[in-house]
Amino acid sequence: MVFGKVGLYCALVCAVFALPTTINFLETSANAVDGGFGGLNVSSLTINSGPSRESRLILGDNESAFTIALTSAGSFVIRHRENPTFTVNPDGQVTINGKLRSTGVVRVDRTLNFAGVDQWMLAVSESFNQGGSGWTNGSTSVCGHPNKPILGGYGKFAGGEVSKYFSQLPAHNQIRFKATFHFIDGWTGETAYAKLERQLVWTDMHDYMTSKNGINICGSASAAESKFGVPIDVVLPHTSSSLTVSFGSTLKTSALEASWGVSDVQIWVRQTSR
Question: Which of 39, 57, 91, 157 is the most buried (most CB within 10 A)?
Answer without folding.
Answer: 157
